[in-house]
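Late entry, evening session. Most of the bench is empty. Finally got around to the prediction I had been postponing all week. Sequence below, unchanged from the version circulated by S.P.
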Amino acid sequence: MIKEIFMLRSIGCLSIVLLHSIHIGIESMTIREMGELSALFFDSIQMILYYGTPMFIFISEFLIAYSYKNRELPSHFLKKRLRYILIPFYIMGVFYAIPFFADGIGAGFAKIGLNLFIGDYHGYFILIIFQFYLFHLWFHRRLRKWKPWIVLTVTFIINAGYLMVFNFTPPPESLPFGEYIWERFYWLPMFGWIFYFTVGFYAGTYYENFRAFIQKYHHWFIAGPVFTSAALLILFHTGLIEVHSSKRTDILIHTLVCSFFLFYITSRLKELPPFLEFISRYSFGIYLLHYFYIFLLDFFFRLQPVPIGFTYILILFFFSLGASILTIQWVNKWKYGYMIIGQIGKPYQKQPSE
């Protein structure tokens, strides 16, 4: 029950929903009618919001490291996560493949295979965190023994180097499926995310020291998101890093700074905002479902488009968010509903020390 994690989880979730709403909105004809300047503005907002997915890597490992810093992992550690996280990922992977059956049975089953085994839909994040569940299970004792600054430095170099290969080099012509690997598959291996994992591990393991660090250098973290956002936009719009996703090398620092900024701001709050606490509890289901409702609304909207400009982005955002929450509530009324869309998180309870 760490209120800062509730805040990070809700903001990360809302950022992802808004990011995808902008992505689909910009692609629609009504947004194009706004002109290049407006499209450029929303494109820039997308770039800044890319911290959402990597922030969840940090959150996931932080919670595990904090929860088990003074005790051993339970025997049901993986079993529990298979039931509540991986099974919903598989079910939604099949669900998002259904439209591809319109192109034939072969295309449909091929898409199911891609979704389930290499995360070829927006739920790919689940396969990444399961790699880290295993990594934590096998290496948490060693990570505690090693010096944090050495591990953090090495993992940053590995993470940044890995992303730079795919950010700055073209796929080898002789490599089978090279284009697909360079455009999407490289997202899946843990090397592209391992720095977030180690930061989360040491922040959770040494929580008191981490909080003191945030408080001591809070001035840097308050100003940090402004500078990292500016750097992102300069590097992107000048063409120095053309990748348009969260798998950019410069997102490493941006995500870290934004996470620490939110952590500090939340630590200063006497009460956790009820709306954000609510979103945090539904965040997993929202993450899995929201894209379906964005696609659904956009499908009908394109049949009879109305020139409403950037308001369309807000409509996509609020409709997908609200419809996802209602669906999560409805499905979780069933005994095994949590295995379809994930369970609803427990409410936040204020700690005596706060």
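Two things to note before I forget:
Residues 3-341 form one domain.
The mean pLDDT is 91.
Will write this up properly tomorrow.
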